[in-house]
């Protein structure tokens, strides 16, 4: 096995840089660690070993001792981390463990100023990931989430072993006389990934001798096609985050798209702005055209908020955001202003049927003003509303602010602390 080919093909120069290698103590990551150690003999770079103990098995401490011995033998720095048992969730522990591990690894990479974080994902992992995501979502981007060169939380991630199988890595370990620890839970059939690994992948390998090459080809060509699609979508105006719960884009920007293309556009918006990956069905979301906009609405929205007493100069919580109402100009994001002779107010959702006072002294139905501002019925209760203690509305976010300048009226400013 040669790791030089990866760096040459990807045109990655490591001289003078720091590399962090994620190492569990298993055969895959031990092989990667040893390959990098040998590669460093002819290239000038710093190599830092990072190990994260999930504390999911009673013998996990053996991995630490194995790595300590290896790193001591070759004078390599080792940084250990632990996942407190108190933080282990009762459900979804596999996904939570993965998130905790990557949080730790990216923090280590940033702390030591590493240019790259390397993981030991191999071709079997790649195939399992394709099958797993095909079953769970059918989303091509999720099926192809393991890239040779990627990024997570601002850290460049390299996976130099994707062209090698598990058997290749085991053969390397045995030839090099390397010690490693087998995770006994990998032999169990309690997870879908393990069932695919034990029962499906062996059959596929028997049926197709070129499966390793085909898996890698799928990975590379899907990356190219996805990149081209993302580049095309980037030419379309990005969606606007609206009331912190929904998104909207002008219908005119999307009306020439097919249904599948529109869904892909929204999928990209969610990934770009919230790092949410959803299939083309946009499960859990609803698309709605209203007044020249296409809205992406969550299937489950926060309920209407009963009016509460508002404290001036103090943070108030509405729709998961913190707002401040003040007579002063503050160095925060201003979301509106209003005039009032009153000094005490309530805040919450706008009561249905409310009429709003216009500048000319007439009143208008609130629903008419919502329509004029292209706010659909589903979102109207999420607009921050401020009213006097007798219920007179002086401000509705995105819709209305009282500008009646009466004698002794004061001007109030509304700021967001969360934007």
Automatic annotation (TrEMBL):
<dbReference type="GO" id="GO:0006400">
    <property type="term" value="P:tRNA modification"/>
</dbReference>
<dbReference type="GO" id="GO:0032267">
    <property type="term" value="F:tRNA(Ile)-lysidine synthase activity"/>
</dbReference>
<dbReference type="InterPro" id="IPR014729">
    <property type="entry name" value="Rossmann-like_a/b/a_fold"/>
</dbReference>
<dbReference type="InterPro" id="IPR012795">
    <property type="entry name" value="tRNA_Ile_lys_synt_N"/>
</dbReference>
<dbReference type="GO" id="GO:0005737">
    <property type="term" value="C:cytoplasm"/>
</dbReference>
<keyword id="KW-0547">Nucleotide-binding</keyword>
<protein>
    <recommendedName>
        <fullName>tRNA(Ile)-lysidine synthase</fullName>
        <ecNumber>6.3.4.19</ecNumber>
    </recommendedName>
</protein>
<comment type="similarity">
    <text>Belongs to the tRNA(Ile)-lysidine synthase family.</text>
</comment>
<keyword id="KW-0067">ATP-binding</keyword>
<keyword id="KW-0819">tRNA processing</keyword>
<feature type="binding site">
    <location>
        <begin position="24"/>
        <end position="29"/>
    </location>
    <ligand>
        <name>ATP</name>
    </ligand>
</feature>
<dbReference type="InterPro" id="IPR012094">
    <property type="entry name" value="tRNA_Ile_lys_synt"/>
</dbReference>
<comment type="function">
    <text>Ligates lysine onto the cytidine present at position 34 of the AUA codon-specific tRNA(Ile) that contains the anticodon CAU, in an ATP-dependent manner. Cytidine is converted to lysidine, thus changing the amino acid specificity of the tRNA from methionine to isoleucine.</text>
</comment>
<keyword id="KW-0963">Cytoplasm</keyword>
<dbReference type="GO" id="GO:0005524">
    <property type="term" value="F:ATP binding"/>
</dbReference>
<keyword id="KW-0436">Ligase</keyword>
<dbReference type="Pfam" id="PF01171">
    <property type="entry name" value="ATP_bind_3"/>
</dbReference>
<dbReference type="InterPro" id="IPR011063">
    <property type="entry name" value="TilS/TtcA_N"/>
</dbReference>
<feature type="domain" description="tRNA(Ile)-lysidine/2-thiocytidine synthase N-terminal">
    <location>
        <begin position="19"/>
        <end position="198"/>
    </location>
</feature>
